[in-house]
Amino acid sequence: MKVQRITGIILKSTPIFEHDKQIELYSKTHGKCRFLAKRIHKKGAFVGRLEPLNHVSICSYKGKSFLYINQCDVIDFFPKIREDFNRLSLALFCVDIIRKSTVYDQDNPTLFSILHIALTAINKELNLHSIKNKFQNNILISEGVKDPHTDDSSTNDFTNIFESYSGHKVIEPLFL
After folding, report:
1. Low-confidence ranges of the chain (pLDDT < 50)
2. Structure confidence at residue 9 (pLDDT)
3. Class of domain 3-76
4. Where are the domains of the chain?
5. Which 3-state string (H, E, C) describes the chain?
């Protein structure tokens, strides 16, 4: 059983069966990956660690059909994001864009950096519209659908460009 350590941001956490969770993690070195955390509710060892938006370091091993998590350490959990609805809405929007623009097991260090920088900025700053525009602009540039030397595009431009590029509908974050 070969154990490997992977660091990344949790994009999605879904209960599966009675005591397990399926985790979708985005890593700089492995891209988007799926893991299974067995007996998560019985052990109590992972309580609160395997939740979306956490930046974690996990130890995993390959089973017959899944990558299994046997240890998880939180690097950062972005506490201010969880305290404010507007911040949480924007952070989940960013995660949704990353989920829709990536495939499994394809690394993209640039997209990981864009997501990590956006989450860090959302956690620290209050100018959420500026962070959102910068995130959208960086996504389009990194995906090669926008020239980096042009002006920032509007929200409608991003929505139209991203939907035609990825084939996925974008739901803008709700700000109160």
Report:
1. none
2. 97
3. mainly beta
4. 3-76, 79-166
5. CCEEEEEEEEEEEEEECCCEEEEEEEECCCEEEEEEECCHHHHCCCCCCCCCCCEEEEEEEECCCCEEEEEEEEEECCHHHHHCHHHHHHHHHHHHHHHHHCCECCCCHHHHHHHHHHHHHHHHCCCHHHHHHHHHHHHHHHCCCCCCCCCCCCHHHHHHHHHHHHCCCCCCCCCC
